[in-house]
Amino acid sequence: MKKPAVVLCPQCSREVVWNEDSPYRPFCSERCKMIDLGQWATESYRIPQADEDNEESS
Ligand SMILES: [Zn+2]
Question: Is the alpha carbon torsion for 23, 24, 30, 31 positive or negative?
Answer without folding.
Answer: positive
